[in-house]
């Protein structure tokens, strides 16, 4: 996607475990594109409404949906993705919530993206399918430090590298896994890409964000790098539905 459509800085969020538990259904983050806006009664508005309606309907059964509505110059493109383990009903709830919330937060922007624990939703007035979006991105990390950062960082990278390979080799572009990290402790990880990407680009995307581990979550008990096209998460507790 054209990165100039959105602000390109990386936003840094710290999240305590407790906050995540209480506000589990709140958006993690969002960006409104500032480059182009529409006005009330603009054809773009009705196209967007149609697109979001389609995504709400299309996404839950497969966990992914994408499409377009309207004609140039009012055409809009969008996609929605649910986390790989999220069932149709929770997926539907999340995409619904995302459509409503993004409308409140970016009411007149032609492009926007919003992330939740369970899903992401993105739209733009340009065809961005199949293109790596590494511009819209944020980090989250657990405030707690591990006691042996050097080993722990290596183990984290090792697990995430495996998951990147695995995710990009499956049709769902999604993988989870766990690994023993000594003294009956375990490390849990997840990697996922939006399904408009090719397998090669999915791997490229994940590989790129894994390289940001030192900036994101150096020696932290948990962390995530979340972009418009892919994301990973690791924790020392299980966090996906099995
Ligand atoms: C679009 O609206 C945003 C506020 O939501 C504003 O910051 C931005 O400058 C506007 N862009 C244009 C091109 O008017
Ligand atoms: C973790 O380590 C950083 C830097 O070494 C320190 O500033 C921070 O206070 C530590 N956090 C906790 C929760 O102990």
From TrEMBL:
Pfam families according to UniProt: Stress-antifung
Signal peptide: 1-24
Residue span, Gnk2-homologous domain: 26-128, 134-239
UniProt KW Nuclease keyword: no
Cellular component GO terms, alphabetical: extracellular region
InterPro entries referenced in this protein's UniProt entry, alphabetically: CRR_secretory_protein, GNK2, GNK2_sf
Xref: CDD domains: Gnk2-like (cd23509)
Coiled-coil ranges per UniProt: none
Subcellular location: Secreted
PROSITE patterns: GNK2
Superkingdom of this protein's organism: Eukaryota
Keyword field: Repeat, Secreted, Signal
UniProt family annotation: Belongs to the cysteine-rich repeat secretory protein family.
The name this protein goes by in its record: Gnk2-homologous domain-containing protein
Organism: Juglans regia
């Amino acid at each position: 996607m054209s990165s100039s459509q959105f602000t390109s800085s990386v936003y840094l969020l710290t999240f305590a475990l407790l906050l995540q538990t209480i506000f589990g259904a709140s958006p993690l983050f969002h960006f409104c594109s500032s480059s182009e806006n529409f006005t009330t009664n603009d054809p773009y508005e009705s196209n967007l409404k149609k697109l979001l309606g389609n995504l709400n309907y299309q996404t839950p059964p497969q966990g992914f949906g994408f499409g377009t509505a309207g004609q140039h110059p009012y055409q809009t493109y969008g996609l929605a993705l649910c986390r790989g383990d999220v069932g149709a009903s929770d997926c539907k709830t999340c995409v619904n919530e995302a459509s409503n919330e993004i409308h409140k937060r970016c009411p007149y922007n032609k492009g926007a993206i919003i992330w939740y624990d369970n899903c992401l939703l993105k739209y733009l007035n340009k065809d961005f399918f199949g293109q790596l979006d590494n511009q819209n991105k944020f980090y989250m990390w657990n405030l707690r430090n591990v006691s042996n950062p050097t080993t722990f960082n290596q183990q984290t990278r090792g697990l995430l590298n495996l998951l990147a390979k695995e995710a990009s080799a499956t049709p769902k572009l999604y993988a989870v896994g766990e690994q023993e990290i000594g003294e009956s402790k375990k490390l849990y990880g997840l990697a996922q890409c939006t399904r408009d990407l090719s397998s090669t680009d999915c791997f490229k995307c994940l590989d790129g964000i894994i390289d940001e581990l030192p900036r994101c979550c150096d020696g932290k008990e948990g962390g995530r790098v979340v972009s418009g096209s892919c994301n990973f998460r690791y924790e020392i507790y299980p966090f996906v539905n099995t």
